[in-house]
């Protein structure tokens, strides 16, 4: 049984842009150094993404429902959701700070065997009778937490040709919920009528004490929000190199020209995000087993899932075939620690092309269970100016999931989806959406020549100065 809170994955098409402001700092802390914004007030940011190759959502004769795939592809299930708000402020000397609060949840899998996940609850179908299976597994972990984050970023060096930026985010992580199912090394034979004979059944399953009051999943009582266990430290770090572009802007009759908000020809970035882990107290119903009940014969395993309305009832049902032991003490769950690599090219006509790679680092975390973003690559062409943008992310993860999305930013509103297939496909295997509302003020943006020297006649030297002669709109609305 999988504990799944319908959470899902961040994949903003605009996340890699300097115009992402406060939200962009969650991916690359250094991005807010020398930001085009004087301030960016992120009133709300909502995002979810869900993908799986276990089943697709289809219209069937019995109505709309999930239809499982029957094939030998290795199965995956990933989901995440987040909601947040933040405030980014630019400081003198090309520095910036960002304060964010958010709630995040991620569900991700380990090994999921194609035969077991396709046949469970329907062993009596002709596809499965009179067959044997060895080493079948289902592994899935869930984590949910609050976070309060402070980011500082600055320009390390800018010689007019090369610009280096760095940033660090210090977080307080408040773990709210954790759950896991770890069914491994399961060997069984299905007879001609769909009954099962197990020779090995290794299982470990449970959840955090914070979920104990939600143990029943009969849908009668409201779920509410799990209580946190107290803030623990975590961090993000980032480094950016920019090759400064020299593309002169035309001057008007007064000799004033608008300076570009994005001044690099190309940018390389590296960051490590979500460095840390959560600790939970194990709930009393959690259990493990690697021993079958003595003398166990063939059983109708499909019936074990009939009429269940709590995790404890699931455990009681399984104890008729396995010897279950209580799991006590604390358990740890990783944050979705990831290495992020990014290349962004500025064509100079408001078109950009971005290539981003995300590498799962959670195997390096000293934890009991892992939640993660799958290792992936994203290609995002985009068109954007100060108050509008169009984003076309193409996303592929190494588990075999590929999605094409679209995003639009206009004034304070950004909206989009990570999965156009989730909207238009008849067989839906993924879905996602993101939405944010920001009040933003751009920095003054003009260059006016002025003279200085003892004579004040202009015969000395001439410089250009960034001045507020060109009045920006106080806030980008529409």
Q: Any overview of this molecule?
A:
Helix content is 5%, strand content 51%. With 478 residues, the chain is mainly beta. It has a single domain (18-466), classed as Porin (Beta Barrel). It has a 14-stranded antiparallel beta barrel with strand order 1-4-5-6-7-9-10-15-16-17-18-21-22-23. A two-stranded antiparallel sheet has the order 2-3. It starts with 20 loop residues before the first helix and ends in a 12-residue tail after the last strand. Mean pLDDT is 85; it is low at 1-9 and 450-470.
In short:
This protein is mainly beta.
Spans of at least 5 consecutive residues whose pLDDT stays below 50 are: 1-9, 450-470
Task: Classify the fold: give the CATH topology.
Answer: Porin
Strand order of the largest sheet: 1-4-5-6-7-9-10-15-16-17-18-21-22-23
Indicate the structural class: mainly beta
How far is it from the N-terminal to the C-terminal residue, by CA? Answer: 48 Å
For the biggest sheet, the summary is:
14 strands, antiparallel, barrel
> Got a strand count?
25
Query: How many structural domains are formed by the residues?
Result: 1
Mean model confidence by pLDDT: 85
Tally of individual helices: 4
Helix content bin: under 10%
- Rg on CA atoms, Å: 27 Å
Instruction: Specify the CATH class.
Output: Mainly Beta
CATH architecture: Beta Barrel
Relative strand content: over 45%
């Amino acid at each position: 049984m999988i504990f799944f809170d319908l959470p899902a994955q961040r994949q903003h098409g605009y996340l890699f842009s300097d115009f992402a402001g406060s939200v962009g700092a969650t991916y690359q802390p250094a991005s807010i150094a020398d930001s085009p914004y004087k301030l960016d007030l992120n009133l709300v940011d909502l995002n979810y993404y869900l993908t799986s190759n276990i089943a697709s959502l289809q219209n069937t004769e019995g109505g709309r429902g999930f239809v499982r795939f029957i094939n030998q592809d290795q199965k995956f299930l990933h989901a995440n959701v987040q909601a947040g708000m933040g405030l980014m402020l630019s400081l003198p000397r090309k520095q910036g700070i960002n304060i964010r609060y958010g709630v995040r949840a991620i569900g991700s899998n380990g090994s999921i065997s194609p035969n077991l996940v396709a046949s469970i609850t329907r062993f009596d179908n002709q596809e499965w009778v009179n067959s044997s299976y060895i080493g079948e597994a289902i592994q899935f972990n869930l984590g949910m937490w609050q976070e309060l984050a402070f980011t500082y970023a600055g320009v390390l060096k800018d010689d007019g040709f090369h610009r280096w930026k760095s940033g660090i985010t210090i977080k307080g992580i408040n773990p709210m919920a954790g759950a896991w199912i770890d069914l491994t090394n399961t060997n069984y034979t299905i007879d001609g009528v769909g009954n099962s004979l197990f020779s090995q059944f290794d299982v470990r399953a449970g959840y955090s004490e914070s979920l104990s009051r939600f143990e029943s999943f009969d849908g009668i009582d409201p779920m509410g929000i799990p209580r946190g266990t107290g803030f623990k430290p975590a961090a993000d770090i980032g480094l950016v190199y920019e090759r400064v572009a020299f593309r002169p802007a035309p001057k008007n009759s007064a000799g004033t020209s608008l300076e570009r908000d994005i001044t690099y020809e190309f940018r390389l970035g590296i960051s490590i995000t979500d460095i840390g882990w959560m600790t939970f107290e194990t709930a009393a119903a959690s259990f493990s087993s690697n021993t079958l009940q003595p003398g166990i014969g063939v059983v109708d395993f499909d019936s074990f899932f009939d009429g269940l309305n709590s995790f404890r009832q699931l455990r009681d049902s399984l104890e008729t075939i396995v010897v279950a032991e209580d799991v006590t003490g604390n358990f740890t769950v990783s944050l979705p620690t990831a290495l992020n690599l990014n290349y962004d090219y500025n064509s100079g006509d408001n078109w950009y092309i971005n290539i981003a790679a995300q590498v799962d680092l959670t195997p390096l975390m000293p934890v009991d269970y892992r939640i993660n973003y799958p290792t992936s690559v994203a290609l995002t062409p985009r068109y954007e100016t100060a108050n509008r943008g169009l984003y076309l992310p193409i996303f592929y993860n190494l588990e075999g999931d590929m999605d094409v999305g679209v995003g639009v930013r206009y004034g304070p509103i950004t909206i989009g989806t990570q999965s156009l297939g989730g909207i238009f496909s008849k067989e839906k295997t993924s879905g996602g959406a993101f939405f944010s509302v920001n009040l933003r003020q751009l920095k003054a943006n003009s260059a006016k020549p002025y003279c200085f020297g003892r004579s004040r006649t202009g015969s000395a030297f001439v410089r250009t100065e960034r001045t507020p002669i060109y009045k920006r709109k106080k806030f980008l609305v529409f």
